[in-house]
Write a structure and sequence with these properties.
5 strands; about 45% strand; 1 helix; mainly beta
């Protein structure tokens, strides 16, 4: 559960292209349906724990384009 009421909002917005034949869209929807804290990591090695705030989808001729907004949350990793 995320409680971000009293803190500055830190967001990451990511656009994902899902080809019609790849099964990626279904896998992404399944991940989103979990409604749990996720780890976002980019190619530069930056990482943020967060929850998905919005998931607009746009149909394209080749598949579906999904724009995820991930709101960062405080999270401590246990080793």
């Amino acid at each position: 559960m995320a409680d971000i009421a009293d803190q500055e909002t830190d967001q990451v917005v990511v656009t994902i292209d899902c080809l019609s034949s790849s099964g990626d869209l279904e896998a992404l929807r399944s991940l989103i349906d979990r409604q749990s804290t996720l780890l976002y990591r980019d190619a530069r090695g930056r990482k943020k724990y967060g929850v998905i705030a919005s998931v607009p989808e746009t149909e394209q001729t080749w598949g579906t384009q999904v724009q995820l907004t991930v709101n960062a949350v405080d999270y401590e990793e246990a080793v």
